What we know:
This protein has helices at 20-26, 45-57, 63-74, 91-96, 117-143, and strands spanning 5-6, 15-17, 30-34, 40-44, 76-79, 86-88, 103-107, 112-116. By secondary structure, the protein is of the alpha+beta class. A six-stranded antiparallel beta sheet has the order 1-7-8-4-3-5. Strands 2-6 form a two-stranded antiparallel ribbon. The radius of gyration is 16 Å and the shape is globular. This is Transcriptional regulator MraZ.
Amino acid sequence: MFLGTYTPKLDEKGRFFLPAKFRDELAEGLVITRSQDRCLAIYPMATFVTMTQPVSTAPATLKQVRDYQRMLAAGASDEIPDKQGRVTIPPMLRAYAALDKDIVVAGAINRVEVWDAAGWQAYSAAQEDAFAAMNEEILTNDAGR
């Protein structure tokens, strides 16, 4: 499980140090992909494979399936952290998330998210007031199942 918020720096080669708490889970390989809200999602390889199983076996004869498969795969990169625990974010993904030097790495339960620092600040400020209501609604609905 990925928890916490960290503020590593992106170097000139597009690399950053994974938080130490995340390194073991991601050491064998990971997938970086576009996510909603103009951030990136990092999944352990096994989690990504499991998560994409339904779309990988869906019929490619359906246009919506082909479109989703293309967008997902074209916007993803498989990586292996180096010996120092650094991960390289490809230029296309850095551009998508508007990543420069200051980034935020946030645990999001089953994934790690990478945000532009200003984007994270704006997002979290906008969500703060709604968080209590979401918590009550989401947990109540889930517990009532």
